[in-house]
Structure formats: C-alpha cells, structure tokens
Amino acid sequence: MTTIRQRKEIKIAEVYEDNASQEEEEELERQLLTVYSGKGLWKILSLTVGGTIGLCIGFLTSVYLATLHENDLWFSNIKEVEREISFRTECGLYYSYYKQMLQAPTISKGFHGLIYDNKTESMRTINILERMNIYQEVFLSILYRVLPIQTYLEPVYFYIYTLFGLQAMYVTALYVTSWLLSGTWLSGLLAAFWYVINRIDTTRVEFTIPLRENWALPFFAVQIAAITYLLKPHLQPLCEKLTLLAVFISTFLFSLTWQFNQFMMLMQSLVLFILDCLNMLPTTKVTWLYVIQVTSLLLVCVLQFFNSMILGSLLISFNFSVLIARTFQKNLKTGSFFNRLWKLLFHLALVLCLTIFLNSFIKQFLNLKSDEHIFKFLKAKFGFGATSDSTNVQYLHKGRCTIILKPGTAYNLMHSILFGCLAFSTMRMKYLWTSHMCVFASFGLCSSDIWELLLKLVHLYTPKRMKMMKYSIPVLILIYLCYKFWPGMMAELSELREFYDPDTVELMNWIKSNTPKKAVFAGSMQLLAGVKLCTGRTLTNHPHYEDKGLRERTKEVYQIYAKRSPEEVYSLLKSFGTDYVILEDSICYERRHSRGCRLRDLLDIANGHVMDGPGENDPDLKPAKHPRFCEEIKRNLPSYSAHFTRVFQNKTFHVYKLSRHK
C-alpha cells in the first residue's frame, strides 16, 4: 500500500547558517593561504638577500686580505727571487713543489720527480707525496697547465689568488654556520665583521700564504656548517643524504691538505662522543660522522702511499673503539638513572681501554715514531633512552625560565670549549678557535632562546620585545663596529710598504751563480727551505718535521751552533754529503729569547754543556772542551781552515765550503 508522506519544509534560516559557515571556512582558508604564502615569500626573500650578502662579504674579505698582502710587500713590483723569499720557512718548501711540477717537462715526469725525490734530503730518496700534504700544489700545477691562462696570469699569482679565494669560502662558511644557529643572516654578518676586525687572531694568510692551515681551515669551516645543518631535526631523506655528502667531501679535503687534521678531528670526535653519551645528539647521525671521519682518513692514507702516521693516529683508534663498544652495548640509553650511569661509566672505560690497546698495537706493528714529538710537546705543556630526531633537544632550567639547547647549538658550544682549551695550550691553534668564537658570539646575540631567557629573568618578556632585542642589538653593534674600525681598516689599506731583504737576495743569487746544481747545502731548516725554492739545490734538512729520522738529522746538523770541535762538525756534515754550510749570525748571536730558550742553549743542554752568560745551570752540566763552532770558525784558525773555507759572507750570512779529504 502506497502512502503519501508530507514533504519536509526547508527552513531558510538553516540554509543561511550552512552557507555562512561554509563562507567562514573558505575565508579562513584564504587567510591561512595568504599567511603561508606571505611567509614563503618572506623566506625566499630572506634566503636570497642573506645568501647574496654572505657571498659578497666573503668576496670582499678575500679582496681585503689580498690587498694587504700586495701593500705590505709590493708583490707586483718585486723580482721573482724576492717573491720566493717572501715565502718564509716551510711555506717556501711547499711552494717549491708547485714550482717543480710546473718546470717538469710533462705531468707524469713531475709525479715521478715527487715520488722519487733525492733533492729534499741529501743521500736519501723519499716520496714527497707520502711524506707531505702537497696534493693541493700538484692539483694547482696541473690546473695551471691545462687552463688557457698562462699568457696573462703568472704561476705565483694563480697560486696566491687560489688561497685568497679559499678565504672567501672560509668566511662564507662561518657566516652560514652562524645563520643556521640563530635563524637570521644578521648573525652571519656580525660573525664575518668580527672575523675581519680580529684578523690578527683569526688568520695569518696574508703573510704565510702556503701554510697547510690556510688550505685546510676553509674546508673545516664548511664541514662544521654542514654538520650544524645535519643536526637539524626533521630533515628530508634526500636533504640528509646531500648534507652527509657535503660533510664527507669537506672532511676528505680537510684531511688531504693538512698533516695535523687527525688531531683536529680527534677533538671533534670527542665532542660527538660526549654529547652522544649525554643523549644530546641522535646516535644514527653521530655514527655516520664517525664513519665519515675514518673513511676520509683511510682514503688520504691510500693517496699518501699508506702513510704510517695516519694509520697510527689516535683518531682511527678512537673511532673504531667507539663503534666496537657500541656493538656490545646497544641499550646504553635505556633503564633507570643509576642503571644508565653504570652502563655509561663502563662504556667510557671500554672505549678508553680499546683506544689505548688499538693505538699501541698499530704503532708497535708499524714501528711508528713519526708523531712522538707532538706527544712529547703535549707532555711538556701539561705534565702529566635512545634518541630520535623529534626529541633530540635538551632543556636547561633556571628558576621558571627554560632555554632549549638544540643539537646544533650543543655541538658548536662543546666544539668551542674544547678548541678553546687547545688554543690556550698551543698558540698556533688560536686561529681555529677565535674564528669559531666569532660565530658563537654572534649567535648568542641573535638567538631568540637566549633573549627570551634574559627577558624572562627580568620579567619583561613579550614576543615583540624579544624580536626587537634580537634584531636591534646586533644592528647597533654593527653600526658601532663600522664607526670604530672602518677608519683604521682604510688607513691600513692605504699604508704602502715594500719587501726588503738584500742579504738573503744576495745569498740566493750567489748560490745560483757560483755553486754546482747538484751541490748539497746544510744550515737552519728555515733558511734551507728558501734555498731549495730559489736555487733548486739539494738540502740536508728542512722544516717538515713529521719524521723521526729527519728530526735526528736536524739535531746533528745544528751542531754547527754548538760547542763542538771542527773535526766533529766536519765529520757530521760529511756524513750527509754536505758541500756547503750556511751560518747565520741571527742564530749564533741570538738575543731575542731569554737564556735557556735560545737554540744554542738548547744544544748546550742536550750536549751536557754549561750555557753561556750569567745564570743558573743544572748540576749535571759541565763546561765544554771546545768553543762554540759558529763563533770560532770566523777566526780562520788552522784547525778550522783545514776543513772549511769561507766562500761568501755579508752582514747576515757566512757560507763555508767543506774540504774534500781523501
């Protein structure tokens, strides 16, 4: 049976309400879209402006340093021999291999000359590529050969411009690191300004261009920037892989260009180890960083013909020990507090014991003693729950205020602390620490978290006030820095000097004109590096000190400044095939250092002789039987003239030719 149902009446009010709610939702969507698109546009604009400023300030820093170098030496106007002499000590030695590769008839013959070198150390054939980190010189020499630039760019300028270009990359990497930490490129700008105005403590590239650190530190800065980005949470898989690739490439290049890379990366590994044990970093990413360090060093080891100093490094032993210890303690971050503390202490002991065992075994197996001088130096100085990306932040409480210590911040903070300790122990390492402190200090001034904490402490916190402080204080500091230091920088750029070392120039010209090309020269290792670069003569010793045999040889050559008989000195020098010996008055009559720190004093102590001049001596030191050789030889007594004939002298140098006794 069919029934007819009355049609339900549609109320106009309900339809109106439904339409109104739909319109409100659409309006809300439009507003959100506008906000997000506005934020997206602002982010793109900020990245564009910030990136452009970073590249520009890196380029300007490079130009600034290159101009200082030119103004200090008048490099473009001086002679070639003067340019080469300006590369002092080990700088000249490294540059000589770049020159040697360019002068070789072919690239293959250049490689052969480096692998079978018999001019760097007399009476020895050594592999320069195995002994020293000079692949950068090899690469540049090949690049200069193949590029069509020979007609308008001299080899020396191609070399120094490359180094100054790396400084642009260095400053840009510092800029990016500070930007990543603070979230604003204003922090990077402040870091770059501080780097430049503290140039004396951040770099010495303008007067020691070929030093290994000037090649390596720019890559190290890139590595730190990449690690800082890697430690950000919620990275996309592709982005994370590309960042790991950047970390690997920069780590490899850093390792390839500096012989002290292993000690820098050991400090880095300690930072990662400490923060990982404290559950402040994601374990997976830390493991990747350990593997990257070891892989980079092993690749460098292969390129350097299995350099034993790399195989016996503490870094490889430590990283392998950490990875091995983890296989035995997979649940290190779970359990109660005391349970975790016990497992952590056992983990520390296990890693320490494994590191000592592995390192001792490798050094005994390889009979490695190349780096023992570094540890002797350090002894003399000191005497003596699972983490995921979404939860990898630590909270530091201070009353009612909380500051979030993010993984990247924690890493850079610990990095600064450990490298600060290294800088205080070794002056050369201050250039590594001060540049990083410029980054961390600028981050502190531009950090939202720190300003939020400070404002909450004085009960003045509001989001707007925090943003105002975050941006206004750095801008005011930048204005002050420009006002304070800009006139001085301009005055420095307008100050013109000229290279002037006529005695050394005269010596090098005399050697080239008056000695056989195969002649062997002995003298101070600093001067001999210049002799090799300027004249191509064979050396008895040189400044690259990472070889025990060379250290012993240098000590014996330096007996020319000790209290030894002419017969003893002659016998020592002849054992190295010496034809000529160069004596320097600046060493023989040194007055710069205090008693006990001069080279001649160190030689006297090593030989068991009483030091010159008034002052205390150790009770086991005795008066020498002979006068000081470098002083007495100038009297031209028969006992000396029988073995040595003076063939050149000026106000600084005295050159003696050794007699050829049958």
TrEMBL record:
The keyword Transmembrane helix applies. Its main location: membrane. Pfam families: Dpy19. It is found in: Membrane. GO terms for cellular component: nuclear inner membrane. It is a multi-pass membrane protein. Keywords: Glycosyltransferase, Membrane, Transferase, Transmembrane, Transmembrane helix. This is Dpy-19 like C-mannosyltransferase 3. The lineage of its organism: Eukaryota, Metazoa, Chordata, Craniata, Vertebrata. The gene is DPY19L3.
